[in-house]
Amino acid sequence: VISVSARPIDTARGRRGAVAVFHDITERKRVETELRGFAGVVAHDLKAPLTLVSAYAELATEALDELAGSVAGDALDRARRGTAKVLHGAGRMQRLINELLDYTAARDATLRLERVSLRALVDDVVITRTDAPEHEPHSRPDVFVGPLPDVHADPVLLRQVIDNLIGNAIKYTPPGQAARIDVTARTGEDGGVRVRIADRGIGIPDGEHAAVFDSFHRASNGTAHPGTGLGLAICRRIVERHGGHIDASPNPGGGTIFSFTLPGAAGAGSEQVTRVRKT
Ligand code: ADP
């Protein structure tokens, strides 16, 4: 496998020329493929023992809660704090493992293309996300969903893209801030669909918008929030496998706009504008 990079040069006496550099990246590709396979196997093999850890930590928590009804004491309090930490850590590991598995699946899973109602998919993600227990009723974001056409896509993989982008829009909008998120789409002349998810959250610093799609990359202002830096790399893979393109840009009103393209499906879907808000 050869990678080629070239740039024009101006030589002395005004003559124009070009320099091309050829790199043999066969070895790098082989190592990347091996690492991806390794990550997939490790994630898969960690899943079962981690499920056991979580299940027993939950059992221990229940038993300690029962004991706390009749016995009091420092030792019991320490044990309860300990099991809470085990459960919290196991939850984080489970999320990381699931992301690593999604990451390998995003490249390797067979694409099953069909007509998908973007509208139904977005509504479902919004309701699941805004119903999440970590959101107090007063800090739930408002998500406005515009008219969305049908697309030609793999519904499982497309759900991951929408879920990651809406999940990020919520995660990177501090509670209490004007937490409005807009999901809109436009069908181009070529029949392709551009989906746009705009938030008014913390934004991405100038010059970092392209890098957030690299695996494990986190923007310099976002590290206070838990995360792995894998979600957007997964989104990019999935969108590119559909022949589309994804990018991020600053929202002029503050926040970030993520935008991606997909092949459209003939005959557009719902035209109505609704507001999905859980209170
Ligand atoms: P994670 O959120 O797990 O860190 P992602 O790959 O989804 O990983 O995102 C990469 C980085 O891009 C995040 O760490 C964050 O810094 C930044 N980012 C993603 N979405 C947003 C957003 N809507 N607003 C601000 N920053 C974002």
Automatic annotation (TrEMBL):
Q: Which residues form a coiled coil?
A: none
Where it sits in the cell: the answer is: Cell membrane
Q: Which organism is it from?
A: Actinoplanes oblitus
| Location of the Histidine kinase domain | 41-266
Part of the full-length chain shown = 448 to 726 of 730
Q: The organism sits in which domain of life? A: Bacteria
Domain (PAC): give its ranges.
Answer: 1-37
- Protein's name in the database: Sensor-like histidine kinase SenX3
